[in-house]
Amino acid sequence: MSNIPETGRTQRVQIRLIVIQVLVFSLLLTLGGRLWYLQIRNGQEYSDEAKNNHVQQVVQPAARGSILDARGVPLADNETRLVVSASRTELMKMDDDGKAVLTRLADVLDMKPKDVFDKVRLCDAKTPQPCWNGSPYQPIPVTDEATTQQALTIRERAEDFPGITAEPTAVRRYPAPGKANTAQVLGYLSPVTDEEITKAQDSDSPYLRSDMVGRSGLERTYDKELRGKAGVTRYEVDNLGRVIGQAKNDEAEAGASVVTSIDARVQAVAEYELNDAMKKARLEFDTNTGENYKADSGAVVVMEAKTGRVVAMASLPNYDPNSWVGGISAKDYAKLTGKKSNFPLLNRAIQGQAAPGSIFKVISSTAAVNAGYPFDGHYPCPSSYSIGGQTFKNFESQGYGDITIGRALEVSCDTVYYGIAHKEWAKDGGNNPKKHPKDWFYKTAHQFGLGKETGIDLPNEVSGRVPDREWKKNFAKANHDAWCKQGKKDGTYVEKIAYENCLEGDKMRAGDSVNYSIGQGDTLVTPIQMATIYAAISNGGTLYDPTVGKAIVSGDGRTVQEIEPKSHGKLPFTKKTRNEIDEALAGVATRGSAAWRFGGWPQDKIPMHAKTGTAEVYGKQTTSWFATYTKDYSIVMTISQGGTGSGASGPAVRNIYNALYGLDATGKQDLKKALLPTPQKGLPKIQTDGTIDAPTVKPYNPASEKPAAEQTLAAVLGRRD
Question: What angle do CA 649, 608, 698 make, to 5 degrees?
Fold first, then answer.
């Protein structure tokens, strides 16, 4: 008899089958659950992603808005150029990935084949510039400087250049009307970065990979308004990248235009006169260093006194912003940023910092009055002032006896301010200061707006420096170890200073205070700060935020958003003190240190107020400062290593005023020749289609004539600061 069951299965086999059935059922259940999750629960989400994976975008850049001067003259706009582009999609379909086509293209464009290959390759972390960081489905620009003949050759021989187009395209242009370069004010553009795209993706103004972004100047400040909205066409493509249909098309919207307060004519004058003043300074011999002045950089600001609007702003050395259009070459970039370049990308009107010298004395005068010293009181003006074993000399070692603060401003007497500052230092406790010292001189500088940005609508403004007690302590803490390591009691001048600082660098010493009172020592200011201060003295005491932008005009011209002047404070003086300072500064221009530069000036019709400054810098030649104002304008010029204030900057500032008011060398006015006898109030006329009729700007042609009384006054007064 057999012991095998009728089923033919042992108990062990039966158990194995049950286990297998359970496993199979579990797998089927898991698979079914996953399919339900993918197709039903999240089906729509994955369906949308699948569609997006097969939709590619082609961007049509929006026309960037123009930057205009106050009369509508374009300072930055767009011009049509013949742009040759390559379709990477078409090239990749070819057996050789389009190398033969690109080689023929290079021959037509007089370019090296490698340069063309580099232009159309895609950017990634390992690929250096040049490369394309936009969509691979978008035509990639090879050059924007094609000639008409080159474009015709490409179009007429289309069979030899499949995937290559030659079309007129709008590109950025900086026309420099009347030779008004305006580079640092306008700024420049460069391609958007991945980081910027990611950062702005959830904002109300996201970037596209094809966008050009403002990197400095007005191009950066008003980038969002100027950029407009790019058009986007979405194409459906298959898994090989071939276009199978058009999904959606969004039309491009042109960017808005920015109307500025800059007057291109005045800008051209300011640039010319600054450059000319620097050239002439280099011909002058510096007796202190035994060589001619270097005059290596400079800046000038022309500002409306009653609004803070900037009429002209020049900085030297400068550069051509057109060099950035289409991508700057490595060679040109090195010229602009190398050690020998002297950094022309810097806007020295808002980023150049230097000791102000005697133009700071309007602040010291206010501080003295607020501390209880009458403006019309009499104070000794000896040729020198001694503190301990140290002697502080008056400029040119000249003394004037007992004089008022007003007269001290006129003749720029240093020792009057030394004496008052020294007394205030002693009242505050000297080397062992009181718990709450008055610090009138430092407090007043902060109230004048120094030590912080003015708020101008240009990027990267610097704050300057007021070397008060808090700064002194922080600076000493950061440098104490270095001072002690370098310092020697009987060493060189620098080593002796380091030795003294090692012992008591955190203390406000008497020498620090008296030096500070005449704008020397560790004090740093910018030209825009001083122009704002002198404009405020002119208008009665209101400190305005300097502005360059005046209005935003939409691309269709239908919407105009004016940028109104804003105030950030009042100067800390009474009306009486303001009028006394005003009268003293008028005296500087008529009988004081600047009088020899304003011979023949019509003081009765256009009252001129001025202050000269010659700041000493250790290891360098003196910095020239010239600060002025009328009832309409404030003009401040500075030249690094340029000599005295009136000697180097004075004639240039006088010539700018002559051009503004239409004055000849003798002070006779011709309003027909005046560029801007009163500040521009309205906006340029905007046409119904959004365009603006702009007048032409002729290059500045300076008169060779000089003020008749200049040489006589120079001989009498001497070239003072």
Answer: 60
> 3-state DSSP call for residue 111?
coil
Q: Letter for the amino acid at 342?
A: N
Q: Identity (one letter) of the amino acid at 52?
A: N
DSSP-derived 3-state class of residue 78: strand
Average pLDDT, the chain: 88
Residue with the two structure tokens 């051209």: 268
Residue 345: other Cβ atoms inside 10 A: 19
pTM, to two decimals: 0.84
Q: What is the pLDDT of residue 217?
A: 97
Name the one residue in this structure whose structure tokens are 């159309």: 120
What are 140's strand-pairing partners? Answer: 86
The CA distance from 420 to 185, in Å, is 40
- Of 64, 250, 277, 267, the residue nearest 172 (C-alpha): 64
DSSP string covering 632-696: SEEEEEEEET---IIIIIHHHHHHHHHHHHTB-TTS-B-TTT-S-SS---SPPPBPTTS-B----
pLDDT at 58: 62
What's the 3-state SS for 469-523? Answer: HHHHHHHHHHHHHHHHHHCCCCCCHHHHHHHHHHHHCCCCCHHHHHHHHCCCCCC
Place of tokens 């500025």: 260
Q: Pick from 235, 216, 72: which is nearest to 691 by CA?
A: 72
- SS3 (DSSP) at 455: coil
State the Cα–Cα distance between residues 60 and 325, nearest whole angstrom: 18
Coil vs helix vs strand at 310: strand
Residues in the chain, pLDDT under 70:
1-9, 37-61, 129, 133-135, 209-210, 235, 237-249, 396-397, 703-721
Cα-to-chain-centroid distance, residue 551: 19
- Which residue in the block uniquely carries the two structure tokens 């309409």? 632
Query: How do residues 167-210 score in pLDDT, each as one tens digit?
Result: 887 889 999 999 999 999 999 998 787 788 888 877 777 777 66
Q: At what angle do helices 414-427 and 510-517 cross, to 10 degrees?
A: 140
pLDDT tens for 114-124 read 989 988 888 87
d(CA 488, CA 504): 14
CB 487 within 8 A of CB 502: yes
3-state secondary structure at position 541: coil
Q: Are 192 and 207 in contact (CB under 8 A)?
A: yes
